[in-house]
C-alpha cells in the first residue's frame, strides 16, 4: 500500500498541515492543531472528501 498524505487546515489559526493517515486518529476522534492547540474532531480539519475517505479506509 502506498502512503498518502492528507491535507488539513485549522479554521482557528489557518495553519495548513499534511499528515500521513497513520499519524491521525480515526474519524470522529479528537485532533489537536500543532500550532494553536485547538482541539476538534479530526474530520473538521480534513480539507477534502478524498482525505476523509483515505482516513476512513486506513482505520477501516
TrEMBL record:
Domain DUF7836 positions: 1-59
Pfam families associated with the record: DUF7836
Domain of life: Archaea
UniProt cross-references to InterPro entries, sorted A to Z: DUF7836 (IPR057158)
Protein name: DUF7836 domain-containing protein
